[in-house]
Amino acid sequence: MAQNLLRWGGGEYFEEARLRLKPIEKDRRAFLLTIYERQNEFNGISNVIENYKIFVRKIKQALRDGLTIEQIYNAFMRLNIVTIELEGSDKENDPQVVFESINATGLHLNGVDLIRNFLMMGEGYEKQKYLFETYWEKIESNLKEEKYVASFILQYLRIYFGANIKKDEIEIYETFKRLSKIEFDNDRESMMQDMLKFSQNYAVLIFSESRHFLANPYNVPSHKIDMLYHKLRVFQKLGFSLSYPFLMILLDDFHAQKLNIDDFEKILNVILSYLVRRNICSLQAPASQKVLCEANNYLKTMSANTHNDFQAPPQNPPYHISLESVAKYLGFMSGAERAPTDTEVESKFGELKANGLKEILLFILWQIECASNETTPSMDNLDIEYVFPQIPTQNWLENLSDETKSQILQVYVHTFGNLTLIEKGKKTHKKIDDSPASKMQFLSESSSLVLNAYFSALDCFDLEAIKLRSENLCKKFLEIFSDIPHRFRTKQETHTLKSSWTYLRPTELVLPSGEVKKVKTYKNVAREIISYLLTHYKDEVYCAMENVDFIKDNDEKKSCAKESSFVFEDFSDFAFYCKAEADTIRKHLKTLVEGVNNEDCKAEHFEIRGYMSGQ
After folding, report:
1. Is pTM beyond 0.90 here?
2. Closest CA to 436 of 493, 381, 504, 388
3. Neighbouring C-beta atoms of residue 393, cutoff 10 Å
4. Where are the alpha helices (DSSP H) in 19-108?
5. 98 contacts 156 by C-beta, under 8 angstroms
6. What is the DSSP letter of 36?
7. Which tens digits make up the pLDDT trace of 77-100?
8. Which run of H or of E encompasses 146?
């Protein structure tokens, strides 16, 4: 059966034969070992071996139930493996399309299987073998397990398409095919080269033993590369996976010598400060994910054309990410996506509770310790300690009013002012918590941490002491996790159709009716203004269109839609079409509004709110 159904020709062993069914490399090894009853030699987990064990159990049960080996064998022989040979090379016979059509009503393959088949199918055997061994097998090796290959593909797609990709296997697969067409012109090998490169970057971020993937393109001392590696690993330790797509881009620029190591570290500090400060202020993670996933595309666009923000960036543009561009980008964020100011952090710092934020709080306290300690302690050897115990003895509660007790135990016991660090294993018995004096003595004398020298002058620790220590820690926090430089924080401005839009990035459009529309690009602005005019002044608009050259009728607009350097907005029986420059769009919309010639609809009645950038 093995000879007839599973392989073509070759030698005595499967290693020397061409398999008809191509599994991933890990499952192939498991399959070969299982065939020769050596599955105990396999290291790791494989569905092939697990499924084999299920079949063995089922067959043994069937034998106990009275079936014979011959009956079971005859049942297997009634199974058919079907091959479909396609003729010709026209689109109707595309093997991937045929495969998807057949599989649509069958057993659902997982996303990794679908993507691997997509990359391999349609190629001849030798090319498949070459692609598999040169790229895919190495991607699997870099990422160790299929679940990490799957998570990598999601983050890889977010590099190109941003955050709006759901963790749905079919959507990921369809998006992957779209990327192949748009970015790589369906050149599968170029795409796999790109994936292999980024799989190494992803491994640096998620695996503790991945230092070897971090190259040293500038030949700096190895300890600097070690420091960079540990800085990158912090994002995984703190659960900041939302930053992975942008970090993978930064790693790529570093390896390609587009970004030097000093600027790389400074950019990482800016991003880390942005994320940690947002956690202090309890700002939602999905907004942070969107900001960082969109960073690459935003910086591409701004590099490609400083004057407009709606034009799709060219493929592989010659742009470089810099410390200044990242700071400008994060400083531009507002609302739910904002980078919190020092004032906002100060207002939240003292009351932030540790619940669910242990790793982040541990990291913050460790960074404060490292800033003062000449000998950098390992964060892995430290743990968070509550100064005022969560379950205090009577010695702690003496001389405290009921209101103060309630405030400490319900609010402040879990806040920064009451938290410190101790070396793991140092706290050997509970008597340390018996009284404030014994606790202060323990912290100041038994610890080598500078953070705990603070307690040497104290013999009690009440609500006021917690608040005062919180203020001291907050000052140190703001020095380490610094704000976006003021020059990069942009202020919102309001413009009309009469004032220049150059460098203005729109966020809102206020119509003459008072209605406010959210906008992100001048293409959005053009659509909203023209839609408003059509709703309220349809006849006047059509009359005004007769005297302008930026309105195209049905006969003209087909040829205009392909011009990437022009704005094209289709309104069924006409299209707005003009050069993709912010102020050119403004002038054309102003001409259209003035052509309406109505006292209630003038150019100054349309307000565009936004932020100045790109100067």
Report:
1. no
2. 388
3. 14
4. 25-35, 47-64, 69-77, 95-103
5. no
6. T
7. 888 777 767 665 554 555 665 565
8. helix 146-161
